[in-house]
Amino acid sequence: MCGIIGCCSNHNVLHNTIDGLKKLEYRGYDSCGITFLLNKEFHTFKSIKRIEDLTRNITVDGGLAVAHTRWATHGKVSLDNAHPIYSTDKKYIIVHNGIIENYLKIKETYLKEYIFYTETDTEIIINLIDYLNKKYSMLDSIKRLYEILEGTFACLILDKNEDKIYFIKNKSPLILGLSNELIVTSDILALPKNTRKYYRLKDGDYGYITKDTYNLFNINDQNHFLFLDYYPLNYDVSLKGFKHYMEKEIYEIPDLLHNYLNKKYESRIINALKNSNKIYLVASGTSFHAASLGALFFSQISKKESYAFVSSEFQIDNTYDEKAIFIVISQSGETADLIKAISKIKKKNYEVIAICNVENSTIKEMSDYFININAGVEIAVASTKSYTLSSLVLYQLSNIIINNLYIEKLAYVINNISNVFDIKDRIQKISSYISNKEHLYYLGKGIDYLLCNEASLKLKEISYIHSESFPAGELKHGSIALISSSSIVIGIITDPLNASLIRSSLEEVKSRGATVFVISLNSLSLDNDTIIINDCDKYLSFISISIILQLLAYYTALNLGNDIDKPRNLAKSVTVE
Ligand code: AGP
Q1: Is pLDDT at 225 greater than 70 in this prediction?
Q2: Is the pTM of this model over 0.85?
Q3: CB-neighbour burial class of residue 203 (10 A; exposed 0-12, middle 13-18, buried 19+)
Q4: Average pLDDT over residues 379-397
């Protein structure tokens, strides 16, 4: 979602600021802007198109700039609503990520005299700064925001009379990067390659950077700045010859899987799971689909009662058993809906295990236990490798807690996984067929239905083809009314227990004229099946099937010429509820 970067240096910062802004593009945005502070004057440029368009219009350069990519929440996509946003008297400027919940009340209480030019909640913050700064120093005014604002906010604020970038953070990520220049950004990916180290700001942190130094404070801890954890910057975001990050990230899966063969999990995590009598999993989107697989693994493999919940629908009540434990799953570690769910869980004192791809994330900080899936940075908005690896972690945990021997079965699948990439032409064949269609249905049962759910989400995210996934047995209860001679149905068959029911449902749609493609396990296959994968343990078929279905979505979007890594309206890290 929205992205922030601010740079302060003895040299011109246009290059690094715009470069950082481009690296924030993957998060999703619909407008962007930048402000330079030069000789006590603001110079602001905005665009409701892409960053290239913004860059073309910039006519200045200098040593201090703040920039932003906006994903509209309060107010439509417009130049006025794009950040940076001025205070009424144009003395201050702000870029902001997050949502201010009590902005109308603040307007009513403090800002009756102010004129507002945007529809944003952000304009409230910058006018509040103007209001407070009449009584307090700039730093104290920033600090006082914590007393007044309710909601999430990561902000950079400029006073045109000071060569400083003030910052403040609450429940929205912000990072301080130290290199030849000082940088504050919402995402480590936006930091220049030569960044020596970075510090991930904590809630309650505020302060400022100048060209040469930084000053950091925390509302709760006066000595906080003495004990900062700095991290070295080490990530690789090159495309390595692939056309898109999504393709590259799918091709990374086999190597990543190999790291899992001898994966050890902390004994305290295993014990916590063993000692629980119920396991609840909470997540959003693709991570929720991994959670659903997890619930199936814990129920069927470990024989523990287990359920998966969508974070945005999650409510906690007193019916949860005392010995229940929660597992939360998130690629980004910053998903607002999940953060809210964790707060509810923690209020009731349940323990939380986080499965996540970001070491220094809010979700890790909020949880009692942390498992890093170590998938490496995932840039494409459509999550691929994170889904496969999170699901694998859940599969392993469900076996480990009952001392099940699974390594041989897993090794077999992992050692043969490259076969999946050898059938690329067959996947492409299906994708050519479906690319010009408007609707598509996935059909499965049990674990295959759960795989269909993710396949369907992946396809709609990047191809914009309307796609739905149905449990095979449920079709006859209504959805079969949709089927006609123009319908396409993809059936997934990997579980011997459910194969015949899925076959019957596929016959039913075929007899109503639908074109059917089948992806099946060798021992369950029929001659005309489109893709047949090697036999494996039924709980491990998700590895090959997920890769095939990710590639199917990818090739379909490629045929359509879509912006695959940055699909319309979507954001990589969904930091608003
Ligand atoms: C994945 O392809 C999606 N972009 C989306 O559903 C995502 O999985 C969801 O927003 C949750 O994100 P998280 O894993 O970072 O918490």
Answers
A1: no
A2: no
A3: middle
A4: 97
Ligand 1 pocket mutation pick from 245, 246, 286, 342 by most atoms within 8 angstroms of CB: 286
Q: What is the pLDDT of residue 312?
A: 95
Give the residues surrounding ligand 1 with Cβ less than 6 Å away: 284-287, 330-332, 335, 338, 381-383, 461, 570, 573-574
Q: How far is the CA of 144 from the centre of ligand 1 (A)?
A: 34
The one-letter amino acid code at 155 reads C
Q: Which residues have a catalytic role annotated?
A: 2, 572
Q: Which of 26, 335, 384, 554 to mutate to test the pocket of ligand 1 (most atoms within 8 A of CB)?
A: 335
Average pLDDT over residues 312-337: 89
pLDDT value of position 361: 81
Of the candidates 97, 74, 202, which has an alpha carbon nearest to the alpha carbon of residue 153?
A: 97
Return the ∠ at Cα 112 (arms to 106 and 115), rounded to 5°: 105
Q: What pLDDT is recorded for position 577? A: 74
**Cα–Cα distance for residue pair 475/481, rounded to 1 Å:** 9
296 C-alpha vs ligand 1 centroid, how far in Å?
20
Residues 263-296 as b/e (b if ≥16 CB within 10 A, e otherwise) read eebeeebbebbeebebbbbbbbbbbbbbbbbbbb
* 62-80: average pLDDT: 92
The answer to whether residues 557 and 319 touch, using CB atoms and an 8 Å cutoff, is no
What mean pLDDT is reported for the chain?
93
Task: Take atom 5 of ligand 1 and give the residue whose Cα is closest.
Answer: 285
Q: Whose CA is nearest to atom 6 of ligand 1?
A: 285
In percent, the amount of the chain with pLDDT more than 90 equals 83
Give which of 99, 123, 93, 95 is closest to 184, Cα–Cα.
95
